[in-house]
């Protein structure tokens, strides 16, 4: 019974233990039967035979047990076939993503397939190949080892593991992998020879670089100094590894102000005059040696320019430096990208440095820096820091406009759609950067006109829920801010999207994050004026009751957005007026908002009140309240904004027209002159 329970357990470990115990019992039972048969041949069996025909209980139990075991085996075989079908389907999805260059998605699909079938070798090798593309070599090696546990003769596993070890500079391990390939399939001799040759060349390069660095650091060159190192770097005929070692040592000598000055006075910024150095710096597709040299140059220039404005100016004055920065940002080397971002940050973090950067052609920079949102390391933060520094510069805003519609917007919408697969904290900062760029009227108009941008924003909002990660909620908050900025524009695209935008924001009013609720209310206050249909939809959805709830809570910013939303709804919807009268008994909430120190908030409250006073009985409900002195205060000369005075005067006129008993209190407060002046607004309204 215990064994049967273990065989049907959902826990795989318990199930495997039960299977092992079952096999052990069966072997023991078979051995005991053989012993009994041997005994029957050599001894006289004196046991009385039971002729009643009743089977022994032990036999019945054994038969039932074997039947249950057979049934369990069939069920496990069926489950395996079903899981194998699912795993194959996920493998094909992963292959499709790999062919499309989406290696992260491919890894996800292969991982899902392995959850269905743990011993499927192809999923391990395919995932290892995707990890290689993302330069996650340790994970690739681990997957290859698992693949070999499934199939010890898997050539692909040894081949990929060899590549991963080679990338990590584990040369003996790489050679062992290639030797294993040859043992398994001697016909792969040519392929193995090429792999071994590549491994030996890479090993030689690393050893030579280490030797050159050791020689320089050990002082084999007598009295190493900045001047002598610069002379050696400028001399032709050396290999790139020699120059790389010398440049790295030079970077250590120019870290202080004295070294920076000496570097400048010895014409250190002409280092690109060496043809070999300049060739490596400007090469489009860089070899490992060229990558190492470029990283060394960037480290040198960062050390020479840190806190030194004159050196920063001289560096960007070099013809092959400023123009090459954009190319380095989009290079395929994370090392080069990381050091390039660090160098640019030296400039962007202070006003003088930003002025120097703005002399360059920065039209591609917004697109290039936004692309780092896909990075999971410090490059994303570095890129967003630079964008945040440059956003407020008018010249940068003007240059961004040239590439916004063709380069930036397609990338930006893709990032929003794939928000769950990218660095969400960096994406939120990138969205905030776009929001800040809306200060430029031209950029804001382009963004607000883009249907793709609105669709991507809505798709991101659609994925928000209480279970969303903090990073995703940051993105939602940033997107709502961007939408508020874009809604400063008025165009046909906004009119087309007004209904879905208002619907998404109405749903967000129930969000647990108060900041998101506030911004969703703000978006409603901006978008509803673009579409009467949107007003009707949100009124049906209970927006009036929601806004009254926010006004009662008393938050200043949320209250200002809420009363603006109510003013738009009551302007065009009689149902909104009726609901306001029903939920706000005797207009107690509106009267409280009329007392606000913020004139715009109080003016919108007066506007809402004037709209509701057109309903029968609304004016009578205010008898005995402080509405008359409140409106007189807003309609009088103390209010600076003309629109607020007008709204209060119209409300006062409608109040006394609908319910003349308010005139007595008005006369006592000497407000008849204001009432007379307000009549023209009542007539015009």
UniProtKB/TrEMBL annotation:
This protein's name: TTC12 protein
Lineage top rank: taxon: Eukaryota
Family matches, as SUPFAM superfamilies: ARM repeat, TPR-like
Keywords tagged on the record: Repeat, TPR repeat
Biased composition (Basic and acidic residues): 22-33
Ranges: TPR repeats: 155-188
SMART domains according to UniProt: TPR
Residue numbers spanned by region Disordered: 22-45
Organism: Sinosuthora webbiana
A GO cellular-component term linked to this record: cytoplasm
GO biological process: axonemal dynein complex assembly; sperm axoneme assembly
């Amino acid at each position: 019974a215990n064994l049967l329970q273990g065989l049907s357990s959902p826990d795989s470990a318990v199930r495997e233990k039960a299977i092992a115990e079952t096999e052990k019992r069966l072997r023991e039972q078979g051995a005991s039967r053989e012993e009994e048969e041997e005994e029957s041949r050599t001894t006289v069996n004196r046991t009385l035979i039971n002729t009643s025909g009743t089977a022994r209980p032990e036999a019945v139990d054994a038969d039932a047990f074997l039947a249950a075991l057979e049934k369990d085996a069939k069920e496990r075989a069926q489950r395996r076939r079903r899981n194998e079908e699912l795993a194959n389907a996920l493998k094909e999805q992963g292959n499709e993503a790999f062919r499309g260059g989406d290696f992260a998605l491919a890894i996800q699909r292969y991982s899902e397939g392995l959850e269905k079938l743990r011993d499927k070798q192809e999923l391990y090798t395919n995932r290892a190949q995707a990890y290689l593309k993302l330069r996650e070599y340790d994970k690739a090696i681990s997957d290859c080892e698992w693949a070999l546990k499934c199939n010890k003769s898997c050539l692909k596993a040894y081949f990929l593991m060899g590549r991963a070890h080679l990338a990590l500079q584990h040369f003996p391990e790489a050679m062992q992998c290639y030797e294993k390939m040859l043992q398994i399939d001697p016909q792969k001799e040519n392929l193995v020879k090429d792999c071994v040759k590549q491994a030996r060349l890479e090993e030689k390069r690393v050893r030579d670089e280490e030797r050159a660095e050791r020689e320089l650091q050990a002082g084999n060159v007598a009295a190493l100094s900045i001047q002598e190192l610069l002379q050696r770097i400028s001399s032709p005929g050396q290999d790139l590894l020699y120059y790389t070692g010398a440049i790295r040592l030079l970077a250590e000598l120019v870290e202080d102000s004295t070294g920076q000055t000496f570097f400048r006075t010895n014409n250190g910024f002409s280092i690109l005059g060496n043809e070999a150095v300049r060739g490596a710096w400007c090469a489009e597709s860089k070899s490992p040696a060229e990558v190492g040299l470029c990283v060394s140059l960037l480290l040198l220039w960062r050390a020479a320019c840190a806190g030194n404005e004159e050196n920063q100016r001289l560096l960007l004055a070099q013809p092959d430096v400023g123009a090459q920065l954009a190319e380095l940002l989009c290079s395929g080397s994370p090392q080069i990208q990381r050091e390039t971002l660090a160098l640019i940050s030296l400039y962007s973090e202070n006003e003088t440095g930003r002025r120097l950067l703005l002399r360059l052609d920065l039209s591609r920079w917004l697109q290039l820096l936004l692309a780092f949102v896909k990075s999971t390391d410090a490059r994303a933060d570095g890129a967003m820091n630079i964008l945040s520094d440059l956003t407020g510069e008018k010249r940068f805003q003007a240059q961004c406009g040239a590439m916004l519609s063709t380069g930036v917007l397609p990338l930006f919408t893709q990032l929003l759609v794939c928000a769950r697969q990218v660095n969400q904290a960096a994406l939120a900062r990138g969205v905030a950067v776009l929001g800040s760029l809306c200060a430029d009227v031209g950029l804001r108009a382009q963004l607000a006109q883009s249907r793709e941008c609105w669709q991507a924003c809505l798709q991101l909002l659609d994925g928000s829920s209480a279970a969303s990660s903090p990073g995703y909620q940051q993105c939602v908050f940033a997107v709502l801010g961007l939408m508020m900025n874009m809604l400063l524009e008025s165009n046909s695209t906004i009119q087309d999207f007004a209904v879905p935008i208002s619907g998404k924001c109405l749903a967000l009013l129930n969000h647990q994050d108060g900041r998101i609720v506030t911004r969703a209310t703000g978006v409603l206050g901006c978008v509803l004026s673009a579409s009467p249909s949107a007003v009707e939809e949100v009124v049906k959805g209970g927006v009036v009751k929601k806004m009254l709830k926010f006004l009662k809570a008393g938050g200043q910013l949320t209250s200002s957005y809420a009363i603006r939303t109510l003013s738009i709804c009551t302007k065009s919807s009689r149902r909104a007026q009726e609901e306001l009268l029903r939920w706000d008994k005797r207009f107690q909430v509106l009267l409280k908002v009329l007392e606000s120190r913020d004139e715009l908030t109080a003016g919108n409250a007066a506007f809402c009140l004037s709209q509701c006073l057109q309903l029968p009985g609304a004016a009578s409900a205010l008898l005995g309240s402080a509405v008359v002195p409140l409106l007189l205060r807003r309609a009088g000369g103390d209010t600076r904004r003309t629109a607020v005075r007008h709204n209060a005067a119209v409300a006062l006129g409608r109040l006394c027209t609908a319910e003349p008993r308010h005139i007595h209190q008005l006369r006592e407060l000497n407000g008849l002159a204001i009432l007379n002046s307000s009549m023209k607004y009542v007539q015009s309204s």
